[in-house]
């Protein structure tokens, strides 16, 4: 599969927490954990479970930085 998004980070799923309709999937990308909220159906379709390799793909129109 090819995708146009350039922010693709390979990692390993560390946790999948399903809710009523949405799941939180945690992916370790080299010591940093990225959490994605996706549908339970997507979790099932992708076969996501702890220990499985996966890519985190980030598509954002804005990146904000703030300080106190």
UniProtKB/TrEMBL annotation:
Pfam families: TOBE. Transmembrane segments: none annotated. InterPro entries: Mo/tungstate-bd_C_term_dom, Mop_domain, Transp-assoc_OB_typ1. Residues 2-67 form the Mop domain. Gene3D superfamilies: 2.40.50.100. It comes from the Bacteria. Keywords: Molybdenum. This is Transporter. It comes from Hansschlegelia quercus.
């Amino acid at each position: 599969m090819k995708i146009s998004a350039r922010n693709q980070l390979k990692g390993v799923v560390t946790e999948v927490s399903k809710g009523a309709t949405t799941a939180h999937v945690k992916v370790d990308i080299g010591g940093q954990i990225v959490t994605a909220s996706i549908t339970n159906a997507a979790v099932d379709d992708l076969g996501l479970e702890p220990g499985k390799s996966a890519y985190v793909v980030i598509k954002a129109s804005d990146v904000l930085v703030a300080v106190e």
